[in-house]
Specification:
12 strands, 5-stranded mixed beta sheet, Fumarylacetoacetate hydrolase, domain 2, mainly beta
């Protein structure tokens, strides 16, 4: 199956299971009350992070460290994107069991915030943040991410 290659095996590499927004309309400076109107749908994401002294963007930008999908659900299939449960495990041990209602910012707030700084385009994706439970992964680990409203994926970690 698919694997994530660990780019820096001598460093700590963490998983972050996240709910992901997919933008459907070009937009800028979207207000919260209009935010759901610009969303095409949702998918699942795995945001891998190398811990260390580098700039945060470099630690999150290694090849293969942003996994998406494989499922995409349209916005109308999720009645309330601020109430979506998901669960991530490593080697069968649940590490993250959360709901989007637990996020620091709501889906609407995230779209409003991002669109204040950037024009958003159809197909842009927004990882919504990782709930508590982030942990280290190593070569040989198996990651499993489940969201009843979106789907699931399994992916291995290679050295």
């Amino acid at each position: 199956g698919d694997t994530i290659p660990i780019r820096f095996p001598d460093r700590r590499n963490d998983h972050e299971f996240e709910f992901v927004i997919v933008i459907g309309k070009e937009c800028s400076r979207v207000k919260q009350e209009d935010a759901l109107d610009v969303i095409a749908g949702y998918t699942l994401g795995l945001d891998m992070t190398v811990r260390g002294p580098e700039d945060r963007s470099a630690r999150k930008s290694c090849d293969g460290y942003a996994v998406l999908g494989p499922w995409f659900v349209t916005a109308d299939e999720i009645a309330d994107p601020d109430n979506v449960s998901f669960c991530g495990s490593v080697n069968g041990v649940i590490k993250q069991d959360a709901n989007t209602s637990d996020q620091v910012l709501s889906i609407r707030e995230l779209v409003e915030y991002a669109s204040e700084y950037y024009t958003l385009y159809p197909g842009d994706v927004m990882y919504t943040g990782s709930p508590e439970g982030v942990s280290e992964v190593k070569a040989g680990d198996e990651l499993h991410f489940v969201c009843d409203q979106v789907g699931e994926f399994k992916i291995g970690v290679s050295g």
